[in-house]
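Lab notebook, bench 4. The sequencing result for the construct came back, and we need a structural model before the next group meeting so we can plan mutations. Quick request posted to the team channel:

Model the 3D structure of this chain.
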Amino acid sequence: MKKISMYALAGLSLLPTSMMAVEKVDTVKTKSEFTTAISATADLKSGDVYKIVCKWDAADVLNIGNVKPNMTAGKLIITSDETDFDKMPQMLIGFDWAKDIDDAGNFALVFENVGLQYRAGKEATSGQIVYINKKNAQMDSVVFRNCDLNNYPRTVYRSVPKSSAAADVKGLGKFVMEGCRVHDGAITSGNNWAVIYPGQAVQEVVIKNNMFYNLPYTTAIFQMGYASEGTGTTPTLTFENNSVFQAASSSQSKGFTAINTGAYFGAGSTFNINNNLFIAPVKGVYASEQVNDEHNFTGKAKVINADQALVYAKNNVVDATGFMPIADCNNTTPGEDGVDHAWLLSEIENSYSLEEAGITSWEEG
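Done. Here's the predicted structure in token form:
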């Protein structure tokens, strides 16, 4: 028995560090405490979990500024105890990743119950709230849950690989945006970008229970880019129970497509689009005075642009003032290279107009 115990102890000393994961929680109330906590993420290893709990009054928007995390592994959760958008801590911040992320780091980034605004506000000429620029970004997951995402010039999340070569395009296991309020961004024509813009080989996307409004020049909710087209991934994208107050107007050179993956997702990727509102905004109601009124909408906004996809869409309200019917988003015209872009399968049921859905008037609030 004694000999077995000695062997067991020896074996424990050889366990990888991921087997001895660290779980740490810090509550922060000031800019200094927050930035100190972000600096501490550099020590995280695969399997470690570090939770930063933000605790300050929502009326006091904390100007954190630009932060450049050296975190390369582990899981970071930035959260608060407040679930009400009007009570949760707000911060002006820009996350600009400083290092390559470890391919075996089990990296995860989670935001929940916090208000995130870009460090220089929505009138800046450029900027994104979370930016991973020309870094290796192999990630298990990126999650925005019950967050107030606002006051930004271009994107909420954007990642750019070192190059578009397949070897440089790292994977993102799962992207989630759930229960969020996304508003007051992309207010200038030069900042016509998507809310979510990953240059990664994405495996799964979940976007549900969100509201998107006051985003005049936003070109998409979710858009792929940078990565080589056809990276080999065939993801499942779920877009459900969202209220999208956006459309394409005559002043938008790039138009608007809610889900824009084109050929970046592989053939046979699945899109579940259910129980959403796709509505052209009206001035004063989920739209600033800057948003064009209905007479300027082209009616050519798209719910989806995806090649060789499996598209399942049920119980959506599609406002003809701003959007074409979902079925018309199917690109059945072969490209110049002869490639067939048409959907492999589509099941579209119960698409309603505003009138059919009983939406006959707007009320403030």
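The mean pLDDT is 89.
Will bring this to the meeting.
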